[in-house]
What does this fold into?
Amino acid sequence: MLRILINALRTGVVTTRYPAEPGVPPDRFRGAPVLRSGSRLPPPDVCPSGALTERFDAGGRHVALDLARCVFCGRCAEDPWEGAVTMGRDFELAARSRDDLRIEVVADETIHVSSTAEPARALSAVALAEADRASSEIRRVLGRSLQLRHLDAGSCNACDWELAALLNPVYDVRRLGIDFVASPRHADGVAVTGSVTRNLETAVRRTVEAVPDPRIVIAVGACAASGGIVGEGYASAGGVDRILPVDVYIPGCPPRPEAIIFGILVALGRLDARRSRRGE
It folds into this structure.
């Protein structure tokens, strides 16, 4: 016992101060890809998860990146597109709308190409007002605490491990008034991981219905946000928003613990969500 106490005193405090202080990801961390307008951007078939799309008009070739589908693998930033796409270090990507996770730029593949990026399709005024109203109601009822039920809808367990890490001494999410409970009837919302398998559709609906109103649904990771690599098919319904309305999307494969903390605080209305942005 004495040895344990001595070791604890020598170790000191290991808990991160995020979000009070900025999170610093490790050197090899891959954040959101950055597309440079006016450059030779990769074709959609480079992306294994279908996060890249393109369209053509009089202004040139428009390339869009859906961060909800992106798994941050880095293939789009490899030669010969190195420089046109770079892997950033941004992990605070949680958004209240899929549209806010879409980035579109104009590629330099025609003679007449605009040098500025077009903004991603923004939320309509009605949808934005509804999202703000829901956020205000959640903040009014739940205050600064949140009890979540983790709901694995068919994940590979990578996101599950990141969620579990929130409870260790390093991240200690309970210091922020956030905790995970065993029953949906004791919860304020659910954190869903994995694309929703067909066999679990009914279970997902019933679990969320068991959570008292006003309840929060958080899609954690690319699979829950969009279907990810798995997508939609005979065995998978795709992202959780195909089954239920989602309040917050947290991109990543898997999102690091700070990214999940950011998304949960966005759901509580304690931090501002990502809005639709232009490319670089």
